[in-house]
Design a protein that fits this description.
Blueprint lengths: L3 H8 L7 H12 L15 H10 L5 H14 L3 H6 L2 H8 L6 H16 L8 H5 L6 H12 L8 H10 L10 H9 L21 H14 L18 H5 L17 E10 L2 E6 L10 E2 L11 H5 L12 E10 L4 E10 L10 E5 L10 H11 L2
Parallel strand pairs: 1-5
Antiparallel strand pairs: 1-2, 2-3, 2-6, 4-5
Helix pairs in contact: 1-2, 2-12, 3-4, 3-9, 6-7, 9-12, 10-11, 10-12
The protein binds a DNA duplex (11 and 11 nucleotides) through helix 3, helix 4, helix 7, helix 9 and helix 10.
Length: 378
Amino acid sequence: MNSGVVAKAKRRGAEPSDRPALLLDWYDRHRRRLPWRPPAGERADPYRVWLSEIMLQQTGVKTVGPYFEKFLARWPDVAALGSASQDDVLRMWAGLGYYSRARNLHACAVAVLREHGGVFPDTEQGLRALPGIGPYTAAAIAAIAFDVRTMPVDGNIERVVSRLYAVEEPLPQAKPLIGELASTLLGPSRAGDEKSRAGDEKSRAGDSAQALMDLGSSICTPKKPACALCPLNEDCVARARGDQEAFPRKAPKKTGTLRRGAAFIVTRGEQLLVRTRVEKGLLGGMTEVPGSEWLAGQDDKTALKQAPVLKGVTRWHRKAGVVTHVFTHFPLELVIYTADVAARTRPPEGMRWVPIATLADEALPNVMRKAIAHGLGL
DNA sequence: TAAGCGTGGAA
DNA sequence: TTTCCAAGCTT
């Protein structure tokens, strides 16, 4: 066990700096308590590690917390999740975004259940073959849940490492280099072993990785990093030059073009007309109200022509204002039209009526919740 | 290889 | 307000 005293002695220069040890020592003192993390020293549950890692892809810790708790309460293990319907999973995921993650999460649980007897593979290669698990997530699960000596590289670690070494190459080209540099921050494994599993002499690979992530999220932040508190500050090349915030280098991202469309809020008493989006692509498999295409330069007249055909609807009421929403790659403006139809009016092909009172349980993405709220005057 | 894919929080 | 961006994956 690395004590703070030992670490500080090394930092004074009596010995060459031992970055892996400094890092683990810092982690032992500042480790965050998170819903998916077991108490210090206890073995992590692969199911929880996997579930949290999928939710955390491009999504903040604070946002994920409640969703993780909800999922764990309803589906406490991979067998339970693999036995659920995809639609139930999408409903629970609604609001978290990047819905292909939810579809892949379910597909992965099914695969683990049917092809691996309900037990997660304990190697990167085995994990990588599962839906929704890419290079980062495979390495993260292997290191955190199975103590495989590997270093997952996420956005936090890219930032920490690119600063530590002042990596001039821009992302994403610099990924391989950053991966190599990041791996030097892993502690030693037992001689001759490619990897150490729980029960063997520990490499603490998972702790090393989570130490870098915690460091990146709390100290080595994108703006105004708290370098004075960083256990690696004496070794940091960017800090020595005073331009920490300039790393990682990356090309500026282009902003998408505004798209416009119409959404049709059709009520039948206390029910609302909805349909399910196609499985693939934007908001795939999620519930939506009928609407026009979303196109750059879409004009209101063209959009209105794409209204659903319902018996008895002679005119649409246009609500004042527009609903705006920003996706990753484009902003959207929706014009909202409403209509109320007689009881027993049949839904158009592929659509259905749902009680407004139970909308909260539908697999509605947030953009649709906004549109419905606007249309219903909520 | 580059583009597609949500959302909300923070500065 | 605007901009950035958070434990990336898929095609």
